[in-house]
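#random but structural
TW: two for the price of one
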Amino acid sequence: MILALLAPRPLLPGPDGKPPAGAPPLTWTVLLGLSGTVLAAFASYLATRLTSFALADLTGGFGVGPDEAAWVANAYNVAEIAVVPLAPWLASIISPRRAVAFSIALLTVASAACPGAGDYRGLIALRFLQGLGGGALIPLLLGTVLRFTPLHQRVVGFAFYALVTTATPLLSETLSGIVTDTLGWQPVYYLDLLISPIALVLVLVGLPIEPLKLEALADADYPGMLLLAVCASTLTTALDLGQRLDWFDSSLIMALFVASALLLAAFVVWELSIEKPLIHLRLLLRRNLACGLLLIIPFSFSLLVTSNVVAQYGVQVRGYRQLQVGEILLWAALVQLAVCASTPFLMRRIDTRVVLAFGLALVALGCRLATFIDSDWAVTDLLPSSITVACGQPLIMVGLLLTATSTLQPQDALAGATLFNIVRTIAGTIGGAIVGAVLTVRERVHSATLADHLVRGAQSTLTGGAPATLAAHARAQSTVMATADAFGMLGTIATIGLLISLAIAEIRIGRKPA
């Protein structure tokens, strides 16, 4: 039904005056393969949920402290970001079908082994392997869409990608919460064993069989890959551990930031100096690609509204279990499923820039509604704002993809997909670090201010432990106020994104060939 709705307008020509070439018409067989890749990406999100639900269990089970347990999450994140620039290139050598199938197999084997890890170091190693497998799947999905979807149907593939990046994290949060709350943290890993084989079969049946292109190995930009992977991994480690190690007061964090800056500079110099770089950085001079990459930042920040800020408020202020939070996030996920299904219809009839701007406006509005939060609010009171944000996110993602790829020629598709996924992954990590810092710092500021006023103003009439009680109440109130500050910041970033969207050149979707 979705495919029948696609009759979009011609796509604007690229810089050489020719419209970008497209793939053959999308068939139901290829659609099965894309569905399998989406399902595999959902399994990868399940793999990331361990540290959200089971950090305390890991700390006690392996006899390690919170700082050591944090590396369980960091091992996955480092591997995930390191593999992003490598996955599309690998797919171009061995074919998307083989690359996706191998990533699914690696994720499945590592997930099956994690619950039986004999010690802490073994678990770290398995989490790293999980990150390599799971981290490759989302960039491979985008590369598969660009490779096998024709222009007039590409928005369908982009809707699949939007589904992965918006709804599936919330769905995985809900499912993981249910399993953890009822069965414990170990079975979360076994969910991959149920989902991944189905995804693997769909991929092997649906995606076309293509020959190996091993001759391309001789021309690969190995130094560029190494510099980019190490730079991204170093930056990710600094952002992941910064909050725990007090940011710039830590010599380790400072060293990681300096190292990532030097590696980035070396990567840029190298890429500009060789004939066949991993990423043609001059692509950034294209207005729509540059705008699309910039707009990934407000999109990535918007994802934190429900999965981070709302979830933390429910747990820390209202005392909800993870299962209760997951049930609430499910409503936002269901809304996103409906919006993702409708985006091809909308993109056919409405200017992409309007859809993108409308999505950003919805996110800004939803965040603004949430700034009125007070301590009497249950998490269900945040549903109107959460659903408003959820409606906007798929519109932003599909609009971003169309914006960033609107003038890319086939020879630039690999570099464009790599840039898009690198920026998306790093922006998500930066967003999580900034939101975490805002919540912590603003909570301390509000707590100190309220405690000081309450205790000094009432000390003449209070006895015993009453001042301490007031201070505890002040801390609870300060958490609510910090949450409102975080919502306000996220809304401001979405508004800035709305202004950036005004600079986008006209985008049109290709008409089905006669």
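TW: number two ↓
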Amino acid sequence: MKPESDNGQKILKGKSISKGYSTGSAFLYQDILSRNLHYYSIEKEDVSRELARIKEAFGRVLEDIESLEKNVKDELGREQAGIFKAHAEILKDKVLLEDIEKELKTELVNAEHAVKNVFRRWANKFRAAKNEMVKSKAEDMEDLSRKVLCSFMRCEVNILENIPPGSVIVARRLLPSDTVRLKRKNVNGIVVEQGSPVSHSAIIARSLGIPGVAEVKGALGEINRGDELILDGYKGTVIKNPTGKEKTFYGEVIDKEKKVQEKLIKKAGNIAKTRDEKLIKVYANIASVEDVKVAVSRGCDGIGLLRIEQLYMYSKILPDEKYLVKNLSRILKPAENKLVTLRLLDIGADKQLPYIDIEDEPSPVLGLRGVRLLLKYKNLLMTQLKAAYILSKDHQIRLLVPIVTFHQEIEELRQIATECKRQLKIRYGLKRKDIPIGAMIETPAAVENIEKIADVSDFLSIGTNDLVQYSVAAGRDNPNVSEYYEKGSDLAMKYIHRVRRSAARHGIECSVCGEMASELKWIKPLIDVGINVLSVSPYLIPLIKDSIRKI
């Protein structure tokens, strides 16, 4: 690390998670519970005013919670709605309000600080309990604290939606729930203290087509809001308050890179063939209407992965069939007649929904995820299946089932899909053909069962991110085992070869939609083992196609 110069220039080193160069203004992002809230002292006569503000905030949050409770009870049942009833009871607890009033009177601080202090105290008290059920209430207190504080500030739980244009996000780490409302036009780069090349921070940076640098130790301490930053996504460095010479150099480099990108985009509409005439399809991984527009403008051959988690995370209540059809129709409008692979909801592990209470698990990444969760909550699954059948009238839809382990999961899902078709026919008179259903291969167990899974699937898609982490038992978001994860790709290639051979025997398509498909060094090895369909970030399509043509 270079010493600071007179203008406060400093070079922070990390690891590249998304290539490219960019400049921008630092936007520091922290969870609301760890932010420095506006603090002010109050007089004794102000206590009643601050208490009234607290009661008003409680009322707004209570209204939202009761609405959520009804929505979840209607969609998923009474048991799932129980968490919201419990949250409502906490807010109605007279002892809690008395404790907050006491805090106001003794500490003479504003409402926000009184709420934050008392809720934190209660959470710590619950966390110290020996009884596991009592201990679990600590998270409820933190969740409610966020809601009440956000109600004070009249903000959404996530502030990334309204960041200024030209921002470089600086954070400890980013989760799916953090980035659900992120707007590409406002973000020039991502800098995180924690993360790996396959962490969510990395995936979001690449999907947005922006540079990203991870493992920048102490970034939140070293960088101040508004600092001018240059990101070098090739070297994995962040320059804080660059010198005039550095600005000139990187300005020229960015212009040059932009011109190269423009040339690649012009050729991207053409099909991609290797030099020995092997056709390779390049699909796009998308989650929004902006993604689809970019994918189509950059020559995608289809949509290989439509993630619907964003729709669920964006919604304050559990989406129903009407909501899904309306929003998916909007997203898919620019896709025209292209093939669309709609992946059924894949939540669990690092992707949580505020209105579905998944029981705390010791190892969430090994727990109730993907198809396991969908088959447990069948109403949740049926809503998605019905929406897909309705959309199939105007779009070439196929369904991808996440985290498949056994062939019986696909068989059970097919039976539920048949029932959904029957209900649509009775309700609307709709007659729909069967939609192709494919399995996402993401675990060594699925590879071991591949013959039986392929036998009941219409296509296969290999998710390399999870396949690698499960193969080497190394979490992709855990920097302590990143070297293990990186070595896992070689092992994954053996699995990919085996899955591709099975798909060929059954005469079905086999694509790779994980991050390995986006890395230039893996494209030739993937093609060598017989993969002829890759699904990547829309922004990478021109580069991937160009790389294929050179093989």
